[in-house]
Amino acid sequence: MKAAPRTLRYTQDHEWASFDLNAGKTVRVGITEYAESQLGDIVYVDLPAVGTELRQHEAFGTVESVKSVSDLMSPVSGRVVAVNGALVDSPDAINKDAYGAGWIVEIDASDSAELDALMNADAYDTYVGGLG
């Protein structure tokens, strides 16, 4: 498995967060390549409604694969401002492009300190490497 993208932040639940500190507080969220590889072929994604308020580490939906169903956990607190509706018809976009077309939601983050607490790519690679 290739190294996690350097520009993203990560959770121990294998979600990634993309944000530009200069462009505001909107955070794009998805699951990592490690997570999608463990799940196998993704067949369904349960998306939250736009406007849903989330708390950090709270489940906001599920991803279902041929192997299992897993909760999606929010890396930050805030309000859902966009969902990737393309996943309704093509949930396998996560398998094909986990860090691009497979994004899941965008969250208007309410506490930038939560972003600082997420793992950088080096820490995430080390964490995943320790999972065996």
In short:
The protein has helices at about 35-40, 85-90, 95, 110-115, 120-130; strands at about 10, 15-20, 25-30, 40-45, 55, 60-65, 70-75, 80-85, 105-110.
General description of the model:
With 132 residues, the chain is an alpha+beta fold. The protein has helices at residues 33-39, 86-89, 93-96, 112-116, 121-129, and strands spanning 9-10, 15-18, 26-31, 42-46, 53-54, 59-65, 69-73, 78-83, 105-109. A hairpin with a 4-residue loop joins strand 1 (9-10) and strand 2 (15-18). The chain is globular and about 35 Å long. The model has no long low-confidence stretch (mean pLDDT 92).
What is the H/E order? EEEHEEEEEHHEHH
What's the total count of β strands?
9
| Number of spatially distinct domains | 1
Task: State the helicity in percent bands.
Answer: 10-25%
CATH topology: OB fold (Dihydrolipoamide Acetyltransferase, E2P)
> Under the CATH scheme, which architecture would be assigned?
Beta Barrel
Average pLDDT rating: 92
At the fourth level of CATH, the homologous superfamily is RNA polymerase II/Efflux pump adaptor protein, barrel-sandwich hybrid domain
Q: Please give the largest β-sheet.
A: 6 strands, antiparallel
Strand residues, percent = 25-35%
Global shape: globular
Contiguous runs where pLDDT drops below 50 for at least 5 residues: none
Structural category is alpha+beta
Q: Ends: how far apart? A: 13 Å
**What is the CATH class?**
Mainly Beta
Strand neighbour order, sheet with most strands: 1-2-3-9-8-5
Features:
132 residues, alpha+beta
